[in-house]
Specification:
Layout (H helix, E strand, L loop, with lengths): L3 E6 L3 H22 L8 H6 L4 H12 L4 H27 L10 H5 L7 H15 L8 H15 L1 H10 L8 E8 L8 H27 L9 H13 L5 H9 L18 H11 L15 H14 L9 H31 L9 H16 L32 H5 L3 H7 L5 H13 L1 E10 L9 E2 L3 E12 L10 H10 L7 H18 L18 H6 L2 H4 L45 H12 L4 H17 L23 E7 L4 E2 L4 E3 L5 E9 L5 E11 L7 E10 L15 H10 L8 H6 L1
Parallel strand pairs: 1-2, 4-11
Antiparallel strand pairs: 3-5, 5-9, 6-7, 6-8, 6-10, 10-11
């Protein structure tokens, strides 16, 4: 019976196989991912790019930002080519190895068919031995040994029996396990060098690499923001629950990424002692006398001054402050996303009663406003038309006359060709073409929401305390589809005047905030997951009493252009934090729609509410949504390029989507960051319905992080019905006496404000 033996590779054949396989596993993906490629731009897309001086200068700066790119690509190509040459050499060398025992067939070696007689075997052996014998001129020692072994295997009875039974003339041998390493590795004279190499790789290099990676990774958050910066955002957002826009900009400038002690890429120049004070004298309302740490530190004041100069589009010294401005501005988008996340987490903590003060909606929206401001290099109170090339403050007078008063990009796009050319008459033909390219490629979002209660028997009826699932469908088209389209112009202008189409601009927000401060103090109610205060009993039945009359009298507002879109689906947003209550809503089955649906979707919702419920269909629908969410574990960050000549890097369009209650100043859902809106995108958000019946109005908001004036808001009316009574036969659901007393004494005080309460106030 054969035994087992382990042996190192004496000839080196198996070692070469190992090296060949290992090298191929590295070279194939490395070639695919790291081989330098020249981006072949589509001529049609290249022709649509803006050729204004600012965009051309930006492309030059981007190309100059990587001076060693060609040298780096050369060495990458050299390394990959060398690897493939080595792979080819090893493949040729492996193919030349002699494996005579791998397929030992004595008949084939002797050149005889199976079943040949002994005489034929002897005759063939004598004939070939005269040729292959080592003493002959044509002799071959290895071939003669194989010939002799084949002759013995067929003439010796025992050898023939072993070959027929075991495939080896010598009988069963030991099972050999080869180690794909050359034998010189375990030789005594080489042991010191081998041990030294093992110690260098596994005891020095590997721990150093892992330790360096770990030390760097623990300093950053998920958005690649320093944890010290995140802690500072938490502190100031908690300290200032109602944060103005300039205060948010001041905190952004104090990020640790702009401090040389935390970031070695920051350059401190001697010229800053002269240039920064001169810049401060030119900037009003900078707040440089603020004594808070780190807002008063020199790096923070310098970053703040550069951001203000960027928003005012000031000219800075090219080799000093302009370089610093480009670096600071390029880091701001990720910092703003982290700031929004911090405010959102503080709101969740306030709902859980872990912190006493709740940040307002204005705080998180002001943080969001910073992103398009930084990307476009423009204050939010400035005209959105300044985002177009060649247009400055002096040209805004051409957009206002007795007949037309153009304030937004949408109004400009909806003009006819002759009217638009007349408005832009101060531009020559080439400049006008560039303006139309930029305007035509800007986004026009069809924004549609659908509300349902998935785990309820009737998904179109929202009951008190139910988990409301809101499906938001975003469909992006280019604004050039609106060129000369006057069919929706009157409707759009009317909605903008009424404030139902877009999120109010800063000036409008400030006016509304001033006029509504007294209302918000009285209107604000605690959310459902916070302990309800015991209110007077006289308010217990007011929402319910008026609820029977109010819904019938509520008129349905006309559908907006964004709501009259189709519903194509391409991808879906990954699942957000359920505990923070992500959700957006518009009541499908209610006749109290206020423009958040198109006419077709309203008819569908009425058909759904009138048809009998099918449990199997609802369950299948729910399972399909879960499967889609599970398939999309990652999140793409590629959508459409943004025209932003004042931003030093290439930028993609991203969006924030969330639901809030503006009457009670409450954020209902975590802002969903949509980063993959190419053609259409669908996301699901959830929140808890008010725990008391009534008619509520919520706002579904969509905010751009790249363009000013592209925000949208849809008001949604939700008729919350009273929840079904809990069956008495389930003792585990019985409410305690304290809960019953709390409900009776607290009355119907909701965490939100109904429309009836607002009218009464």
């Amino acid at each position: 019976m054969g035994g087992q033996k382990f042996e190192y590779d004496e000839s080196g054949s198996t070692f070469f196989y190992f090296v060949l396989s290992f090298l191929a596993l590295i070279l194939v993906p490395a070639t695919f991912y790291y081989w330098p490629r020249k981006r072949k731009e589509d001529p049609a897309k290249q022709a649509e790019l803006c050729q204004c001086p600012n965009c051309v200068q930006k492309q030059i700066i981007i190309e100059q930002s990587e001076p060693y790119k060609k040298v780096k690509n050369f060495f990458i190509m050299l390394a990959i080519i060398s690897g493939w040459v080595l792979l080819g050499f090893l493949a040729v060398k492996v193919s030349q190895f002699d494996y005579e025992m791998s397929n030992f067939d004595p008949y084939e070696i002797l050149g005889l068919p199976p079943g040949a007689t002994q005489a034929e075997i002897k005759r063939s052996y004598r004939k070939q031995s005269l040729i292959l014998h080592p003493d002959k001129e044509t002799g071959d020692e290895k071939a003669f040994m194989k010939l002799t072994k084949a002759y013995q295997a067929l003439t010796d009875e025992e050898a023939r029996r072993n070959w027929e039974k075991y495939g080896n003339p010598d009988g069963p041998g030991a099972m050999s396990f080869g180690i794909a390493l050359p034998s010189w590795i375990v030789e005594k004279e080489n042991s010191v060098w081998v041990l030294g190499l093992y110690a260098l790789v596994f005891m020095v290099a590997l721990p150093t690499a892992v330790g360096t990676w770990w030390y760097r990774s623990i300093r950053f958050s998920g958005e690649q923001v320093l944890l010290d910066t995140t802690q500072m955002y938490f502190y100031f957002c908690h300290k200032t629950p109602s944060m103005p826009l300039k205060r948010a900009l001041m905190i952004l400038a104090a990020s640790c990424e702009f401090d040389k002690r935390h970031n070695s890429e920051i350059i401190e120049r001697i010229t800053d002692n002269e240039e920064v004070p001169m810049l401060l004298r030119e900037l009003p309302n900078l707040g440089e006398k603020n004594k808070e740490q780190p807002l008063c530190r020199p790096y923070s004041i310098k970053a703040r001054a550069l951001l203000h100069a960027h928003l005012m589009r000031m000219k800075l010294p090219e080799d000093t402050l302009e370089v610093d401005r480009r670096y600071i501005v390029s880091r701001c988008p990720n910092l703003i996303v982290e700031m929004v996340n911090c405010v959102n987490q503080l709101i969740a903590l306030a709902y859980a009663r872990r912190i006493p003060r709740l940040p307002t909606i204005g705080t998180i929206e002001n943080c969001m406003k910073l992103s398009p401001m930084i990307v476009q290099g423009l204050w939010d109170y400035k005209s959105a038309l300044l985002q177009l090339p060649y247009i400055n403050e002096d040209h805004l007078k051409y957009f206002t006359n007795r007949k037309k008063h153009i304030k937004s990009l949408l109004q400009l796009a909806q003009l006819s060709g002759d009217e638009r050319r007349q408005v832009l008459r101060f531009l020559n033909d080439k400049q006008y073409d560039d303006v139309m390219k930029v305007l035509g490629n800007m986004p026009y979002i069809h924004f549609q929401v659908n509300t349902e209660v998935i785990d309820d028997e009737n998904s179109t009826v929202v009951t008190a305390g139910a988990i409301v699932t809101v499906t938001v469908l975003l469909r992006r088209t280019n604004m050039k589809e609106l060129f000369g389209d006057t069919s929706i112009k009157e409707k759009t202008l009317k909605e903008e005047e009424e404030g139902g189409g877009d999120v109010p601009e800063k000036g409008e927000n400030e006016k509304n905030n001033k006029t509504d401060k007294s209302e918000k103090k009285d209107v604000y109610k605690r959310p459902v997951w916070m302990k309800q205060k015991k209110g007077p009993a006289k308010k217990t039945k007011k929402p319910v009493a008026k609820q029977q009359v109010k819904p019938a009298a509520a008129p349905a507002a006309p559908a907006t252009p964004a709501a009259t879109s189709d519903k194509p689906k391409e991808n879906k947003e990954p699942k957000k934090k359920d505990e923070e209550g992500a959700g957006e809503e518009s009541d499908e089955g209610s006749s109290d729609e206020s423009g958040s649906h198109s006419d077709g979707s309203g008819d569908e919702s009425r058909d759904k509410s009138s048809a009998p419920d099918d449990d199997d269909d609802q369950w299948d629908k729910f399972q399909k949504r879960l499967q889609k969410r599970e398939r999309l574990e990652g999140r793409s960050k590629s959508s459409h390029p943004v025209h932003c000549p004042y931003f030093p890097l290439e930028k993609q369009e991203y969006w924030w989507c969330y639901i809030c209650d503006r009457k009670s100043n409450t954020l209902l859902t975590a802002p969903a960051h949509v980063t993959a809106l190419v053609d259409s995108h669908e996301l699901q958000l959830r929140f808890t319905a008010p725990r008391w019946p009534g008619l509520y109005t919520f706002a579904c908001c969509l905010r751009s992080d790249s363009y000013i004036g592209m925000d949208q808001q849809q008001d949604m009316k939700m008729d919350v019905k009273e929840a079904a009574a809990v069956p008495a036969e389930h003792p585990q659901w019985d409410l305690s006496d304290s809960d019953t007393e709390n409900n009776e004494e607290g009355g119907n005080e909701s965490e939100f404000t109904t429309d009836d309460e607002v009218e009464e106030e």
